[in-house]
Amino acid sequence: MVCLDLKWKFQWYVGSLNDDSQPQATKVLMVIGVGVAGRWRLPLCYCLTDGTDAQLQEALLKSIISKLSQCGCCVVSVTMDGLAANQKTLRNLGCNFDPKGLVSIFPHTDCDDMQVAAVFDACHMMKLARNCLNEYQILKIPGVGKVKWEHIKQLHSVQTGEGLTLANKLTKAHVNYKTQKMKVKLAVQVISASCAKAIEYLRLTGSPAFADSLPTELFLRKLDKLFDYLNCRSAFGKGYKSPINAANAAARIGFLEETRQFLLTLENSNGKRLVDTKRRMFVIGLCVTINSVIYLTQKLILQAGINGVKLRYLLTYKMSQDHIEILFSIIRRRGGWCNNPTAMQFRLAYRAILCHVGVVPLTHSNCLTNCTDDILADENTDSSDLFVESAVALQDHCYATLLPTLSKYVENVATYIAGFVVRKLLPRLKCGQCRSLLVDADNINAPSSSFLQLKNNGGLVTPSAAVVRIVHIAERNLRAVTAHDKPIYTIAKLGSKLESMVIEDVDISHIFGHTTHLEDTLDGIENHVSSLTRQVVKFYLQIRKFHIVKSWNISQRGTVVRQKLTKLVLFSNQ
Ligand SMILES: [Zn+2]
Q1: Is residue 461 part of a domain?
Q2: Ligand 1 centroid, distance to 531 Cα (angstroms)
Q3: How far is CA 272 from CA 65, 218, 283, 413, in A?
Q4: Inter-residue contact 377 to 484 (CB < 8 Å)
């Protein structure tokens, strides 16, 4: 079984022109097949044209579907993005995009008893949803209230002002996305449950700008969950990201149907339904995709299957356009990251790819904080660190009174990060008593834990009051020594000095309350409690440094010009 991805891409200006009667090809139309039951994807055809239209696409699709069925492959769905020509192609094939009578399946060319489902790429629809909200600024949910883009802008400015984010990825690139509007990442990180949670937190803590943000949260949450359902990649995914199977199919279909109704009732600020405005494509596209996913779930999982193949689970990611985008990325890479290859370059790259299956596209990977070098950890016992520290500790350091105080916002975020620090530390600790000192489930009701409480769906670790206190001291020290206007390498230079400054301010003998663990484990000048404190500080600072460096990088980045200058310059890293 195959999902077809169809897309045209690549524009070029130089081509071989031997015959004047033929127009010069400026684009290429490509179709790629993706296995629904197996793990494979294969380019099926490309077509050099000077611009595609519905007739060409329809003829091409029909011939591919019929050729595939001749070799025993059954096409179950066709994926496209929301271009007008693509919509027309699907309408010609037998779909109907009138919101009153949506038809998302069309008859199979060769087999009368089979149908092919039309899917609009979910990633693309999320970008359109984001653009729509930005364009109209206000969307209305009847009976609930107004969804406002302003809330997202406000959230960004609050986060920038406080210097810490509420566990979401919002940056200036997400708010001013216009120069990079093709990036899916920037859209789905705005329309996300983590942004909804952050806005909810600000509403609950009484920020005046967020007093009416409930509809915005509802909108972001619904679309985020829908996107997870329409984009599940792994058979082992958890929660919303788990694949559709026989056990959860009924609940999934229920949610999808409810969301379809929700989308169809959305209105713009004048009370006109979105499906009647010119920005209707994301609503129609998502509804068509929902219908198709429901249809495929029923056919492939609940009923007898298609063409004798019944699935245990359905991965909706197989129906996304990512596969063809990745192929384009590979082709661009072969041309030295060239956006506009000539027809000749494209053909050579295509041929080379068929010969070298296994050329991988660029993956951007971030590295996280790594292992420790202290006595509590299993590996890399390195005691030299101890002496460095004691040398620094000899310096006169008593800034505690001068340290900046933290706002309630920052305290809450720091506590949330503390939970993550504890979670990372727990499996590395050999001593059971130390482990128990780090965690305290009762501490969830502390005033600085309200954000943690809000974020928790059952999987988060609650740090003990002592850990929270250590982390708050660390944050205050960090803010005292890192100035916003200083270049970033000053932080790198701080190194373990910052750690020892924090440890100086922490009262080791009392921080963990009435425990005798310090005396019990005393060995020379070292003991478990101070070592534990040092570990907490170290992990916390690693995470914070990472964030500071990242924010600094973003602030230093110039305007993104790739989209504007794409015909003039070759870009390798934007
Ligand atoms: Zn211990």
Answers
A1: yes
A2: 9
A3: 40, 20, 14, 40
A4: no
Residue-wise burial string across 23-50, b where 16 or more C-beta atoms lie within 10 A, e elsewhere: eebbbbbbbbbbebbeeebebbebebee
Ligand 1 center from residue 505 Cα (angstroms): 21
The CATH number of the domain holding residue 322 is: 3.30.420
Q: What is the average pLDDT value for the chain, to the nearest integer?
A: 81
Q: For residues 405 and 547, state if they share a domain.
A: yes
Domain boundary among 340, 355, 370: 355
Whether 304 maps to a domain, the answer reads no
Rounded to the nearest angstrom, the distance between the alpha carbon of 372 and the centre of ligand 1 is 16
Report yes or no: 533 and 503 within 8 Å, Cβ to Cβ: yes
Centre of ligand 1 from the C-alpha of residue 434, in Å: 4
Distance 378 CA to ligand 1 centre (A): 13
| Over residues 134-140, mean pLDDT | 93
Check whether residue 73 and residue 190 sit in a common domain.
no
Helix (H, G, I), strand (E, B) or coil at 190: coil
The model's pLDDT over 318-336, given as tens digits with 9 standing for 90+, comes to 888 888 888 888 888 877 7
- Are residues 329 and 469 part of one domain? no
> What is the tally of structural domains in the chain?
3
The answer to whether residues 173 and 160 belong to one domain is yes
Residue 280 and residue 233 share a domain:
yes
> Do 45 and 70 contact (CB within 8 A), yes or no?
no
**Domain contains 306:** no
Alpha carbon of 424 to ligand 1 centroid (Å): 16
Domain boundary among 260, 285, 310: 285
**AA identity, residue 491:** I
Torsion angle in degrees (nearest 10) through CA of 485, 488, 489, 493:
80
Check whether residue 459 and residue 485 sit in a common domain. Answer: yes
Q: How far apart are the first and last CA of the chain?
A: 37
Same domain, 268 and 130: yes
Structure tokens at 525: 């000048």
- Cα torsion angle, 325, 326, 329, 331, sign: negative
Q: How far is the CA of 534 from the centre of ligand 1 (A)?
A: 13
Structural domain of 258: 123-285
- Whole-model pTM: value is 0.79
> The tokens 């489902």 sit on which residue?
117
CA atoms within 13 A on the CB side of 495: 5
**How many A from CA of 435 to the centre of ligand 1?**
7
Cα of 425 from ligand 1 centre, angstroms: 13
Q: Note whether residue 8 is domain-resident.
A: yes
- Residue 298 per-residue DSSP state: I
188-219 pLDDT, tens digit per residue, is: 999 999 999 999 999 999 989 999 999 999 99
Q: For residue 518, which amino acid is it?
A: L
Residues 348 and 409 in one domain: no
